[in-house]
Amino acid sequence: KKNITADNISKIEKMLPNNVENVKLIIDFDKILQTMVEERGTVRLYKSEEKTDTGSTKVSIENPKITPGSVSETGYDNTRLGAINFSFTVTLTYSDFLEFLRRIEHSTRIMDIESIAFTIAPGQAGSNQSADPIYTFNITLKTYWMKYISDTKIQ
Q1: Of 6, 40, 59, 78, which is most buried, counting CB atoms within 10 Å of its CB?
Q2: What phi-psi label fits residue 114: left (phi over 0), alpha (psi between -120 and 50 degrees) or beta?
Q3: Does residue 45 sit in helix, strand or coil?
Q4: What is the pLDDT of residues 95-154, one digit of tens each?
Q5: Which residues of 79-92 are buried (b: 16+ CB within 10 A; e: fewer)?
Q6: The pTM is what?
Q7: Is residue 81 a contact partner of residue 121, using CB atoms and an 8 Å limit?
Q8: Which uninterrupted H or E stretch holds 81?
Q9: What is the dihedral of CA 22, 23, 25, 30, to 10 degrees?
């Protein structure tokens, strides 16, 4: 413990926080998504009445839902490790969706994708557009948090 730097302790606490952090989780996913479409220059493909502080079209996750999860299938002690299920919808092109998944995969927090389902986005069916079609993806993932136990707190 004594050889762990303060920076590494901070990274560990982000990877496995000591509380659920529901609101922060939703905000983090919105930031990942918005940053990605702005960097890729695909923000123009998505219709939204909302604007960001910079005047760009706001792209965000939709219908976020957080429910209690279980760690019983992981083999870990459920008195020390908690889990939540996080489901949401996002409307993207397939290539943007793959990049979104890549960024989730490389985020600091530990997550397991439980399911992905998709449909063609409303207004896209039957259209003969040469551009990438836009899909609505329904994603459910599980993320974990360390239950606070005073004798295991990293110091």
Answers
A1: 59
A2: alpha
A3: helix
A4: 999 999 999 999 888 899 999 999 987 776 555 554 678 999 999 999 988 876 554 454
A5: eeebbbbbbbebbb
A6: 0.77
A7: no
A8: strand 81-93
A9: 150
